[in-house]
Sequence to fold (65 residues):
Amino acid sequence: METPSWFKSSYSNNGGVCVEVAFNLVAPQGIVPVRDSKSRTGPVLNLPTVAFTSFVTGVKSGEFN
Fold:
C-alpha cells in the first residue's frame, strides 16, 4: 500500500492554519487524504476524489465565504 506524499500549498504563509493533501493516492485508491499541518500525527480525512474536487470548486467560487 502506498503512503501519502503530503503537500502544502505554496499560498500557505506558515500562519498555522493550513491543511496538507496527498494527491499521489488519487489514481491507485480514488481518495485525497487531508490533514491538519499542525498535527501531522493526528487524524487524516480520506476524501473521495469527487468530494475533494467539489470542495475545491466551491472554495474557488466563493461558496463558503
Q: What stands out?
A: DSSP finds two helices and four strands in the chain. The first strand starts at residue 7 and ends at 8. The two ends are 37 Å apart (CA to CA). The helical segments are 26-29, 49-60.
